[in-house]
């Protein structure tokens, strides 16, 4: 046995080790959970056992990178094959007991945070649009601005294609660099948005005795090499892998008509109003900013999408369409209920240049007497819209079908015209937006774009607007036409 080991038959024959470091900063609140509950919140955060600082495990980062690289190379929902670069970089596929070890080592990261925030959530019944019984929960988040020092080690074996592995690594890490990879819980709903900068790379050639000794002595020491903003350049100007993932995205700017109130669950201080619009810290801002949470936006979109689909549906396809886009349950081959993730991703948006320092006093009226109810006086602090108020919403649909794009276009129309309000108290006029500009992008092998602009009372449509109408027609045909026998 010893002879077989020392003869190299069990050796990976590693000839190079490439160390990569970068600084990760949260752009929105993120929840990296411990899986337990405590007396204060239902979903507490995972912290370092020694110092109590934020902990981001290497397994979480590696899983996100692997999933992103597989989707980039194969498309959403496609399984990786043995020859794919995601398998070559991250090792054997799930269920492959004889698969290769990962060529990439991802270390745990202990970070620094300006603090935590607790957000209250509730599950909404799809039919009644009211809160479900016993479905209120609290989640703890690290605030935006929390930083983590990332460290990776790429192992190059004698038989490996070094250029291909470096291209795969650069493609995966570019997702962290440009914000396309989100981490933690509720990452499809705007939480866990990150940005990585300050890439540092150093290569140790283990076939060179001096570099081998350097790695043995300093391999675990933070790198002291110049930082680069692009991981592709830091790794030696390697080319990224060709993108095969399909996607439809909407980036739209709105104004705010009236006011907006997404309840934060508590005032900003003990003596504050009863209800205050949700605020969150943002990188580069000294004060918390009023935001539209991704859960509120996604909930409103799903409810209206269900309503549109039910109105058009004559073939009982509405629920299948909505669950396929926004996630839900489905039956597997054995008849068991399985959860399906949402393919609709939304971002948490800041309400820029709004007025959030005014308090509105209100009172509940008894419908029978017409007078004020006793002990029913309350005050609210929403965010009020001004002419310069700006809200930018971003929505992505992964692996889209034409009919699903058509449904998103109808949702954009309802947001644009103010027919689809966001937040609470829509019955008293809150939460109505006014569309100003939108850019639609369809990645389907090639890229197609459309721009829509509001010009006073008129709407400026692109010359190829009939292509957008074709998506809506596809939705109508799918829900109303009978399938051929």
- Computed structural class: alpha+beta
User: How many discrete domains?
Assistant: 2
Q: How far is the N terminus from the C terminus?
A: 65 Å
Strand content: 25-35%
3D architecture notes:
With 485 residues, the chain is of the alpha+beta class. It has two domains: 15-234, no CATH class; 247-480, no CATH class. The chain contains ten helices and 24 strands. It has helices at 2-6, 58-74, 85-90, 162-177, 209-218, 231-234, 294-312, 318-326, 402-417, 465-480, and strands at 14-26, 55-56, 104-106, 109-110, 116-124, 131-142, 147-157, 194-205, 247-257, 259-260, 275-276, 279-280, 289-292, 328-331, 337-340, 344-346, 349-352, 360-365, 372-381, 383-384, 390-398, 432-444, 446-455, 458-460. The strands form seven sheets. Strands 9, 12, 13, 16, 17, 21, 22, 23 and 24 form a nine-stranded antiparallel beta sheet that branches. A hairpin with a 5-residue loop joins strand 14 and strand 15 (337-340). Helix 2 (58-74) crosses helix 4 and helix 7 (294-312) packs antiparallel against helix 8. The longest helix is centred in the middle third of the chain and has 19 residues, at 294-312. The protein is globular and about 90 Å long. The N and C termini lie far apart (65 Å). Mean pLDDT is 88; it is low at 1-8.
């Amino acid at each position: 046995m010893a002879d077989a080991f020392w003869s190299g038959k069990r050796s990976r024959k590693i000839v190079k080790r490439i160390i990569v470091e970068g600084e990760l900063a949260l752009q929105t609140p993120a929840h990296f959970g411990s899986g337990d509950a405590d007396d204060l919140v239902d979903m507490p955060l995972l912290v370092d056992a020694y110092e109590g600082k934020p902990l981001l495990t290497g397994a979480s980062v590696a899983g996100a990178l692997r999933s992103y690289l597989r989707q980039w190379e194969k498309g959403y929902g496609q399984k990786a094959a043995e020859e794919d670069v995601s398998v070559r970089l991250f090792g054997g596929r799930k269920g492959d007991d004889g698969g290769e070890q990962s060529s990439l080592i991802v270390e745990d990261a202990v970070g620094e945070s300006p603090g935590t925030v607790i957000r209250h959530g509730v599950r909404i019944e799809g039919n009644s649009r009211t809160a479900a019984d016993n479905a209120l929960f609290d989640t703890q988040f690290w605030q935006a601005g929390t930083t983590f020092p990332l460290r990776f080690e790429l192992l190059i074996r004698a038989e490996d294609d070094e250029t291909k592995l470096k291209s795969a690594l650069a493609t995966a890490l570019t997702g962290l660099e440009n914000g396309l990879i989100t981490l933690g819980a509720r990452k499809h709903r705007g939480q866990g948005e990150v940005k990585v900068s300050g890439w540092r790379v150093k290569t140790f050639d283990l076939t060179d005795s001096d570099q081998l000794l350097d790695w043995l002595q300093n391999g675990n020491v933070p790198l002291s090499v110049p930082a680069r903003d692009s991981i592709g350049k830091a790794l030696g100007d390697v080319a990224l892998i060709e993108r095969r993932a399909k996607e439809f995205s909407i980036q739209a700017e709105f104004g705010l008509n009236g006011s907006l109130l997404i309840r934060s669950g508590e005032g900003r201080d003990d003596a504050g109003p009863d209800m205050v619009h949700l605020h969150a810290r943002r990188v580069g801002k000294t004060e918390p900013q009023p935001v539209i949470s991704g859960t509120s936006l996604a909930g409103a979109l799903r409810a209206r999408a269900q309503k549109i689909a039910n109105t058009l549906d004559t073939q009982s396809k509405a629920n299948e369409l909505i669950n396929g886009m926004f996630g839900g349950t489905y039956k597997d081959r054995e008849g068991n209920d399985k959860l399906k993730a949402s393919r609709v991703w939304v971002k948490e948006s800041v309400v820029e240049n709004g007025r959030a320092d005014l308090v509105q006093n209100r009172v509940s009226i008894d419908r029978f007497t017409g007078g004020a109810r006793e002990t029913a006086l309350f005050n609210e602090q929403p965010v009020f819209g001004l002419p310069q108020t700006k809200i930018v919403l971003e929505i992505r649909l992964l692996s889209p079908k034409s009919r699903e794009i058509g449904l998103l276009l109808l949702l954009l129309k309802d947001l644009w015209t103010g027919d689809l309000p966001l937040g609470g108290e829509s019955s008293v006029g809150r939460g109505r937006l006014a569309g100003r500009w939108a850019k639609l992008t369809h990645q389907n092998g090639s890229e197609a774009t459309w721009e829509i602009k509001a010009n006073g009372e008129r709407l400026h449509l692109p010359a190829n607007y009939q292509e957008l109408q074709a998506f809506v027609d596809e939705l109508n045909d799918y829900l109303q036409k009978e399938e051929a026998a």
